[in-house]
Amino acid sequence: MNYIPLKQLPKTASELQLQGAAWKYLVNTWPVLYGLLFHVPNGGSRNGIEGKQLQGAGVTPGVPDLILIWRNQAHAIEAKIWEKQFEPKQGCSPEQIAIHAKWKKQGIKVHMAFCAEEIVECVLSITGLTLADSELHTPPHL
Questions:
Q1: pLDDT class for 127, splitting at 50, 70, 90?
Q2: Is 30 left (phi over 0), alpha (psi -120 to 50) or beta?
Q3: 64 prior amide bond cis, ω within 30
Q4: 104-120, pLDDT tens digit by residue?
């Protein structure tokens, strides 16, 4: 599929920018996804105090980037920027590999996406949503 807003992302977009563009496209096109698809802010740079506070609040290294709750099931999406040096597609940290394994043991599907379009395609594959199910307006919460 060709998602026009996602094609406008710069080639140097960060993982966070890719996730944000995919999320915004998905919840604007299918508002039913709002609150069922969300980002888990486990990365990024923070000062020492904020980092310690977040760690104390339960931030866990390795937790996937996006969570989708759909039809009584949780799905995790790990977003990575695919670059030729990661051939074949890979790039998970040891913490991510360990958390993914724990989640899979619990029956939670962990999906990998290497660009914003793959995030969108993953969510649509899980949900079965189509453009016929979409709403053509922007929900008031965005």
A1: very high
A2: beta
A3: no
A4: 999 999 999 988 889 99
Query: Could you identify the residue written with the tokens 């939670």?
Result: 108
Largest CA distance in the chain: 48
What one-letter code names the amino acid at 82? W
**11-128 has which fold?**
Trna Endonuclease; Chain: A, domain 1 (3.40.1350)
Give the residue carrying structure tokens 């998602």. Answer: 3
Q: Token digits for 6?
A: 């996602």
pLDDT higher than threshold 60 for residue 141: no
| Separation of alpha carbons 121 and 119, rounded Å | 6
Domain ranges of the chain: 11-128
